[in-house]
Amino acid sequence: MQTANKFYITTPIYYVNARPHVGHAYTTIVCDAVARYHRMLGDDTFFLTGTDEHGQKIVRSATAAGLTPQALTNQIAVEYRALWDHMGITYDKFIRTTDAEHKRGVQELFRRIQKNGFIYKGRYSGQYCVYDELYVDSAGPGAPCPECGRPTETVQEENYFFKLSEFANKLLKHYEQNPGFIRPETRRNEVMAFVRSGLRDLSISRSTFKWGVPVPDDPEHVVYVWFDALSNYCTAIGFGSPDKKDQEQFAKYWPADVHMVGKEIVRFHCVYWPALLMSAGLPLPKSIIAHGWLLFEESKMSKSRGNIVRAETIVDVLGRDALRYFLLREVVFGQDGSFSFDAVVQRYNADLANDLGNLSSRTLSMITRYFRGQVPYPAPKASHKPADDAIANLAGEVIQSYKELFESYQFSRALEAAWSLISAVNKYIVDTEPWALAEREENKEENLARLATILYTCAEALRIVTALVHSIIPDSTARIWGQLGLGDISAFRLDELKWGQLQLGTKLGKVEPVFPRADKNSIEKMQQLEQSGNAAPSSAPVQPAGKGAVAGQVASQSAVGESRSVTSKTSAGAVAAGPQIATLAPSNTIVNDGKITIDDFAKIELRVGQVKVAEKVKGADKLLRLEVDIGTEVRQVVAGIAKAYAPESLIGRKVVILTNLAPRKLRGLESNGMIIAASFGEEGVPVLATFLEDVPVGARLK
Ligand code: MSP
After folding, report:
1. What is the average per-residue pLDDT within 661-680?
2. How far is the CA of 268 from the centre of ligand 1 (A)?
3. What is the CA(260)–ligand 1 centre distance, in A?
């Protein structure tokens, strides 16, 4: 990948014989991440996607659906476009091969190649695979397609032919002189072997159906669907238009910098397309990058195998970034990768909710609390500890390695590099215990200076990671950027990123959790959506995770209610402080001797919760306001534990929460639940109930 001043990237255009699934979304998400990255480098970027609507395959699918080809293509093209919009894909143009401008451009390309003497009329007699829209010269009558294994059909037609055989040597020379033209290396080797084995002329028209672009001056024929489809990369940016502006646009963006394709369509892009361009006297794309397949239940996700998952399902339950992050982190780019709901949830929880989410909420809430929400001034460099410098140095290294890895399409490794910084900073926070510094009474000034250095270091590292991974997880990073008080992240230039740019005194924005934790319900929810085919229609508005649209575990920050302080005096080991239990259980559930029945106990809903946000309540020295993830939602709870626990020490901690306590108000704050603690001694010191083993958020105690 290069950082030219202009950057033109394309997805393949998608067949409209079936609805989009996660496999299609994968190609598009990769391109979107690359396009966003280039925009952040300041490149004049053009990102093209669209739909491939002609050919025999579409005619057959339409017939099977009882529709005309135009009706089917209109329906599916709208779905694709709506899905990309729903997913926040930043395409600059969505082309349909049924667009009049495209048809005109295809005819113009055909004419040019004809004029240059590379097209002739002949008779084709051989096998054709309708599924791949591929001439299979090597197969005899009835033989299966070597690409997909489906039966081929015998075709005998008078056709137009392209003199592909004349281009074998020119192509080989081009591959040799441009080692980056086909990537990865394995695909390059396959293509070179294919071309070395000899190329036959290619039939580029069909006369047995009409659903296509008519051959210029011979409307009995339509242009072969792959000639038609490949031309979109030129027609979309103005090729073949009489309009001067379109011509200028074509001159500006062509040749494409990247054609991103799945591995099964490499031959069309690396052999046919460059030969067609050479014959038309047009420059060749700079690179064709092939990715692997997304497998579901061990085979390529595809409609014909019936093993598809829709992108909307993941987006609507976990948010757009969860899907993007999973695909770029989990799948080693270029190789096949497996998809499963479990794996998506695991990645989301471990890397986003825990690692990045905790770094962000801890750092920002401590700055809010200790420095009134303004980025503090670090102490002079001379007083820095080796651990502070180590973070700054690591950040510098990570910026460089992230860029190198991303620019060579090693997205998974690039993310690993970014996460090495996140982990280091999370460890730095645990080691330096900033909350303890803040609470310590002696050497107040010295401690404050040290605290400022630590929190500046954390915030600066958070800013750097956020900028780096923005093109991959744009929604959540835009929110973190806003919470860091830095405004609109899209205005930030990645090529200028370096340590120390975070302005001292920057006023933080409103600090809110960005990645609500996903639990088992999320998996069930996704499975149900797939089974019922009920994912929200692509055109439904989507909000990023944490903004309220994430089913099953949305932060309902406006939740009402109250828990009372748990500090009232009871004996250690009690489930909870006495007075709360008394009001909790209606009097008719208490049997005479003070014992309750198991049915009574069953009414008490205790669950495992995880603290997402913790802060002191103004004017109440015993109270903390907590936001606790209980699996199905995030509850606001006001708890009387401020004397025993620093708010920062609670973030990420698993607690026991009484979830069916009637809501109440405390110090004007609504509290909805009660955190369970033992309480002992004269002061009623609370000790939070906790677990030695790892327990999932939302698990019920019974
Ligand atoms: N219409 C042609 C492309 C013409 S480009 C001039 C086509 N369409 S497609 O809809 O079948 O595939 C489009 C893209 O989606 C390809 O890059 C393909 O690899 C990708 N995927 C479809 N299923 C996929 C997976 N299961 N996994 C990863 N990508 C997959 O080919």
Report:
1. 86
2. 12
3. 10
